[in-house]
Amino acid sequence: MRFDLKTLCGLVLAFAAMTGAAQAACPTGLPPGVFCGEKNLAAAASGTYALDPDHAAVIARVSHIGYSMSVFRFDRVQGQLVWDAANPAASKLTAAVQTASIATNVKDFAKELSGDAYLKSAAFPQATFVSSAFHPTDATHGKVDGLLTLLGKTRPATFDVTLIGSGKVMGQARIGVHATTSITPQDFGMSPFFLDPIELVIDAEFGKAA
Prior knowledge:
mainly beta; eight-stranded antiparallel barrel; 12% helix; 48% strand; globular; TTHA0802/YceI-like_sf
């Protein structure tokens, strides 16, 4: 089958329109004052934002001795974003995860993971991240450098960050992001059982303080 130039251009435009429609889709019937997020940082006002623990997930993806990736979730997380809309590079982020909140679908394994053989949560109850620099790369992507502390050891880390959406919910400005990085377990003195890099995946919403 052959396409002439006019037909080909039409197909490209139709695909672009369908893609744009999918990205802009927003459910109908939302309660008054609730608006869908937009991939538009201009909708995010400057100010101090608190991480919403009900809309946040911290995931660790760990190699299961080369067969698959085991997925662990940390259920208790807090954080603060100081957002500078006029100069995003000047923004600041702090976050903390309660390591004892680790969850897994392997029966009774979470307690073992938080114990002395692995995360040593009694001695080191938190893993923390403090940003040192924001590097916007385009309108919806960037990198955030900082210091990650785990098991009492602090190492540099860089997260690749994607804006999921910004806007307002019940009058509160909100920013939602997806962020990933990987760490070398030996850098933090973790069990020699962990040989491959561990991927950290974070999905979170931040709400602006009143």
